[in-house]
Each structure stands twice: as structure tokens, then as C-alpha cells.
Recover the amino acids of this structure.
């Protein structure tokens, strides 16, 4: 297999986007192509993958990748739209990797995007919940926050995680987002005000007990893009591409209640193990990680399943500051889903964009000094389809 | 006819499933017999959700994951003022979602007597 790298990155400001879905995708795509020094002209890209979960359902657009190719004047490039729930982005990166590694393509454009704020909060919650089991879950009114709430309670009962632990992680991610100009939320909540203040239950109400508003990601619009290329043509690009060193993916039971150990996220563990094996790396070799904190408990659980901390100790590591920039393993330097935002199809691509920026040394106030290897974990369903991606900076 | 909830018993190895699957998780057989899934269960975890999806005209609903005495674990709604992990529940079947021209039935757990 050929080695594969990332030659260009692009990212719109997450939040509320005016304009059309295709314009939003195009902005991210053009930024990534420009970053890679690629002319937007026929023949410059072999394949385009677009990752989106809800374009068909909430924006009434299908065939997005075909439309984007034409909008960007990249015909006759191959084109597919990829849907794997909130892990659509990392799935598209995986498919792009396979396309280049196999030798079928030299240059592949990946664009992930979601425009969710066109619908009401309850419609957004509903369309995301359609990935749950239709009869055993969705028709009960169960949602992703509902499962995250039940998972959080199990974690609290078993490992002693507190509401304050979750708030500490949320505040850390908001602080990181202050250094990321594309993050949706540009403010840092006061830890005391959202946890111990007498009005905390008003400022920070329950969404799905015991999860409160500040333990849950916002609803965001946005797009992110990457240009993947074969490392054997790296000299065509202005900078040395960051290598995609490992990719792992695994699935788990669709019905959450069926899991043998309900606090385990087996698909995360397997996906991470497969990515480490492919990259020839161990958890201790990772310098920076973007973990799918749609709910703050997931940052804790994924940090354990990815091997950074022993089971049941992720929250203790967060309390110690191990996951802050400058700590043992900085997590969600971008602000994470919590503060940067979570436009579903964009998220997996956005996580990889952040790792590229960190490994290039472009992190600004959130830079992890000397970062060489980064891990991203993109979590689909309630953990029933998870993709882990490892990037490495190769020395000149 | 009064709505009932079922488990699906593999006709070859007897393994119970809920919901219905195409392939037995234990032996790979493809035929099942529907058997009633009812009675007592233990609550493993729960939540009260305040931001419900479209179609629910209530301020909040309580949900839980419960384990039946036969070992099957299911999600359902909870109708009880008192809710605590580990409590004993009785499974009832009721309308869990009102659709247009069609009601959807599912587990509504109540505190056991």
C-alpha cells in the first residue's frame, strides 16, 4: 500500500451559517485546496467524498458530492456522499485513505458539513435520534442525550465521577476554544457559577439528568475539508504532508441496552487498538488527541478506552489537569465538540484538521509543543460505529 | 387486542432476543418463536430528559434501561415519581408515542408493589 498524507486543510467558522449548504462546503473545500496549492480545475482532484448526516433529511439535498464537484469545477472527478451518523467525517477520511493507498487515486478531497440550525432544536434532536434502533429506542422518544444521561449515571455510580468533574472538562474545552478562531462558542463559563452557585440549576439546567446544559455540545452549522495525497507525490505540494499513520474502525450493538458491560465502549477500544497497531504506536506515543465529546462524559470514557488512563480514572486525570494544553496528554485543544461545535458530518474532518494544525505547529495559543503524533476518535450512534485516526509528522 | 411485548426465542438453541433479529446471536439460526416479555425487572440506570424530540407534548419523560429476570435488558419509559437505580419495576405496555393516525406501543415501567 502507498503511504498517504494530508496536504491541505480548510475549516469554516462553526456556528450559524448564512448562505446555502453548497456554499458552506465550497468555502471549506477551496481553503483546503488553496492550502495544498491545488488549482480548482478539471483533473486536479481524482475523487471527492462529502460527509453529511442530515443534508437529505433536513436540508432536502441529496447527491451532495456530485453537486459539489460541479460547483468547484472539478469534473470529471469521482464523487460519493458518505453517511455514518456523527462519524461520517472520519469515515470519509478513511475512504479517502483507502482510495489513495490502493493506488486508484493520487489526490482526494474530503469535505464534511452539516447545516443544522435551519430547523428547531426539537427537530434537530429528532433527526439525530433516527440513527437509534427504530422500534427498541427511537419510537420511545429516546435520544442521544438520553443515552448519554443514562451512561453518565452508570459511570458516576461505578467510578465516582461527579457533576463537577464534567464541568471541569467543559470549562477546559471552552478555554481551548478561545484560542481557536473557528470555534462556535467564544466564551468561558465560570466553574463556580455552573456548579456550586445557588443559581447553578438555573444557569446550567438539566438536559438529560445528570447531564446539564454545559455538559452537552451546542447545535452548530459548519464545514471542514482535507486534501489527501499519496506521499510519493508529496513534492508537488508546498509543505511536507502530515502522514495518516493509522486508521481503525469498529462497530458495536445497535441496541445500547444489549451491551454486556454498559459502561464499556467496545467500538472505541477496538477502533483505537486497530489504529495503534497500524501506526506501530502506543497510547503513550500520542502527543495530542481530539476525542468526540458530544457529551462531556464521552471525553472521560473515550480517554480511558483509547488507553490514555486506566478504566475509571479519566475524570481523575482531568481533575489533575493532565488533559490541558501543557499536561500529560492534551485533549480537545480545538475546544472539542463542546465549544468548537458539532456539525455532525463536519466533526470527524474537523478533528483531523485540528491534528494537522497541531502537527504543523500552527496551533497558536493552544499549540502542544513538539507534537509529533495525534489521535482523533469520531463516535457514531451511541458508540455503535467508531472511527479512530492517527496522524504523524514525518521529519524533513 | 391488547398490545403485548415479545422476546424472540431461537428455535434451535433457545437464546432470547429483544428486539427481533434476523440471525440468532448465539448459534446463527434464522427462525424464532415469539414469547411474551413481561413481569418484573430491575432498573440499571435512568434519566429524565427535558429536551424531547419533535412530537412529544410533555415537559419531560423519564427513561431507563431495565433487566428482566430472564436476563434480557431493554430500554423503556418510566412512569413513577420515585426513581432509583436498582429499584424493582413491573413492565407494563402502553402508548410511548402518539403518531398521526397510529399509536406506538412499548414498555412503560412502573414501581413494583
Amino acid at each position: 500500500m502507498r503511504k498517504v498524507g494530508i496536504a491541505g486543510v480548510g475549516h469554516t467558522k462553526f456556528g450559524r451559517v448564512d448562505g446555502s449548504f453548497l456554499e458552506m462546503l465550497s468555502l471549506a473545500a477551496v481553503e483546503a485546496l488553496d492550502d495544498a496549492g491545488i488549482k480548482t480545475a478539471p483533473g486536479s482532484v481524482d475523487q471527492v467524498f462529502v460527509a453529511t448526516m442530515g443534508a437529505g433529511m433536513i436540508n432536502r439535498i441529496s447527491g451532495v458530492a456530485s453537486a459539489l464537484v460541479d460547483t468547484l469545477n472539478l469534473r470529471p472527478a469521482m464523487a460519493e456522499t458518505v453517511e455514518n451518523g456523527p462519524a461520517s467525517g472520519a469515515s470519509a477520511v478513511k475512504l479517502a485513505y483507502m482510495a489513495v493507498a490502493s493506488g486508484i487515486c493520487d489526490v482526494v478531497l474530503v469535505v464534511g458539513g452539516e447545516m443544522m440550525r435551519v430547523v428547531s432544536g426539537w427537530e434537530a434532536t429528532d433527526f439525530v435520534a433516527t440513527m437509534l434502533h427504530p422500534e427498541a429506542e427511537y419510537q420511545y422518544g429516546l435520544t442521544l442525550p438520553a443515552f448519554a444521561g443514562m451512561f453518565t449515571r452508570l459511570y458516576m455510580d461505578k467510578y465516582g465521577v461527579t457533576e463537577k468533574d464534567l464541568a471541569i472538562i467543559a470549562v477546559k474545552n471552552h478555554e481551548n476554544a478561545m484560542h481557536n478562531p473557528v470555534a462556535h462558542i467564544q466564551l468561558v463559563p465560570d466553574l463556580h457559577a455552573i456548579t456550586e452557585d445557588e443559581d447553578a440549576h438555573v444557569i446550567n439546567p438539566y438536559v438529560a439528568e445528570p447531564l446539564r446544559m454545559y455538559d452537552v455540545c451546542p447545535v452548530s452549522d459548519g464545514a471542514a475539508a482535507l486534501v489527501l495525497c499519496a506521499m510519493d507525490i508529496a513534492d508537488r505540494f508546498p509543505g511536507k504532508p502530515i502522514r495518516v499513520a493509522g486508521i481503525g474502525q469498529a462497530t458495536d450493538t445497535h441496541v445500547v441496552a444489549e451491551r454486556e458491560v454498559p459502561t464499556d465502549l467496545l467500538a472505541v477500544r477496538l477502533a483505537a487498538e486497530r489504529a495503534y497497531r497500524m501506526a506501530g504506536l502506543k497510547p503513550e506515543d500520542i502527543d495530542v488527541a481530539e476525542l468526540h465529546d458530544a457529551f462531556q462524559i464521552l471525553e472521560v470514557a473515550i480517554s480511558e478506552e483509547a488507553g490514555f488512563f486506566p478504566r475509571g480514572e479519566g475524570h481523575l486525570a482531568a481533575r489533575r489537569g493532565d488533559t490541558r494544553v501543557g499536561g500529560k496528554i492534551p485533549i480537545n485543544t480545538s475546544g472539542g465538540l463542546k465549544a468548537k461545535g458539532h456539525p455532525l458530518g463536519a466533526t470527524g474532518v474537523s478533528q483531523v484538521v485540528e491534528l494537522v494544525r497541531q502537527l504543523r505547529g500552527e496551533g497558536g495559543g493552544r499549540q502542544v509543543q513538539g507534537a509529533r503524533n495525534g489521535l482523533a476518535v469520531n463516535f457514531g450512534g451511541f458508540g455503535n460505529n467508531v472511527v479512530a485516526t492517527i496522524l504523524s509528522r514525518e521529519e524533513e | 387486542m391488547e398490545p403485548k411485548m415479545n422476546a424472540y426465542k431461537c428455535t434451535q438453541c433457545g437464546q432470547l432476543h429483544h428486539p427481533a433479529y434476523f440471525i440468532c446471536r448465539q448459534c446463527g439460526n434464522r427462525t424464532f418463536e415469539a414469547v411474551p416479555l413481561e413481569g418484573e425487572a430491575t432498573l440499571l440506570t435512568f434519566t429524565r430528559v427535558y429536551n424531547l424530540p419533535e412530537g412529544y407534548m410533555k415537559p419531560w419523560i423519564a427513561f431507563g434501561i431495565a433487566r428482566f429476570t430472564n436476563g434480557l435488558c431493554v430500554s423503556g419509559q418510566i412512569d413513577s415519581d420515585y426513581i432509583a437505580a436498582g429499584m424493582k419495576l413491573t413492565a407494563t405496555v402502553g402508548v410511548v408515542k402518539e403518531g398521526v393516525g397510529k399509536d406506538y406501543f412499548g414498555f412503560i415501567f412502573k414501581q413494583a408493589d
